[in-house]
Amino acid sequence: MSSSRAVLLPGTASDEVFISAVFARPLAEAGLALLAPASRGVREHVAALDAAWDGTPLVVGGVSLGAHVAAAWAVRHPERCAGLLLALPAWHGAADGAPASATARASASVVGSAGVEAALTGVDGWLGDELRRAWPRYGSRLADVLEEAAGEPAPSLAELSGLTAPVGVAACTDDPIHPLEVARAWVEALPRAALRTTTLAALGADRESLGRAALDAYRSAQAAV
Predict the structure, then answer these.
(1) CB-based contact 22:88 (threshold 8 Å)
(2) Domains held by the chain: number
(3) What region holds the Serine aminopeptidase S33 domain (predicted)?
(4) Mean pLDDT of the chain, nearest integer
(5) In this predicted model, what pLDDT tens digit does every residue of 169-195 receive, in sequence order?
(6) Long-range contacts of 106-111 (CB under 8 A, 24+ apart)
(7) Which member of 18, 56, 142, 222 has the lowest number of beta carbons within 10 Å of its beta carbon?
């Protein structure tokens, strides 16, 4: 890989703990050091990417909202980007009622009116465990962070078409919140990209399955001419 560092951002109201669980070991095995900023929200994510830039192109990316923010940063600063690792993109362009946007907005409403536990009623298994761990870390900012993410535009397909760095995209075939069709649209728009898939069940059993899928796609994109 052409960079020695990867700066990866979490999804909406997720955190650097999840990012590390997904990516740290797969990246280390690929010769990349993970930088997982403890940033909260879109502006902090952008600031973390800006702060990581030291004149050497970076691999950037993230999960869901983190993937959107990293891709938008790469669109604005293509000279700073050696490549992208993008897991679970949720929409392109305006959110326009995308499932992840609607879910975040609904969660923000319940958090604001009834609290975290009420918003997580019925969210069980590994995802429930992750959210019950991460959401309290946001404190009083949680509802605002969820609401912000729900309306934050992702790069448009036209903007993605201008990115020439290699891009690895990972999606879960059984994830209705981050539809596989969105990931496919991103890959079709990007000039030099590949897609690999896993499942939510696999991710629940092994967080690294998502990181390995993104890295495998990235290697394939690098090899493409």
Answers:
(1) no
(2) 2
(3) 42-117
(4) 96
(5) 999 999 999 999 999 999 999 999 999
(6) 107/13, 107/146, 108/142, 108/143, 108/144, 108/146, 108/147, 108/150, 109/143, 111/135, 111/142, 111/143, 111/146
(7) 56
pLDDT more than 90, % of the chain? 97
pTM: 0.96
- If asked whether residues 142 and 167 sit together in one domain, one would say no
Distance CA 46, CA 23 (A): 20
In terms of Cα–Cα distance, which of 29, 66, 32, 31 is closest to 49? Answer: 66
Indicate the helix (H) or strand (E) that contains 124: none
The CATH number given to whatever domain includes residue 68 is 3.40.50.1820
For the beta carbon of residue 76, count every other beta carbon within 10 angstroms: 13
The amino acid sitting at 15 is D
Distance CA 88, CA 76 (A): 21
